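Entry 14. Structure prediction run on the chain below.
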Amino acid sequence: MINNILLQENHSSISEREVEIVHLLSMGYNSKEIGEMLFISEHTVNTHRRNMVRKLDLKNSYQLIVWAFKERILSL
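Output returned:
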């Protein structure tokens, strides 16, 4: 599911778990659904989302998904 080469190139940006979360967000899943899929709490998903937005200096999850496509972490 996740291209390891992309993770290595972007290792300083977001973690592998964060890549999983942004991928599921881009597919339209909410935090509760993502938590259930990854066997983590909804709160943990929200913490990952918040951390990604903060460390990438973005404003919201929408910008996070756009960033992931621009950085080729996600693709169509």
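The domain at 16-71 is CATH 1.10.10.10 (Arc Repressor Mutant, subunit A).
Filed with the rest of this week's runs.
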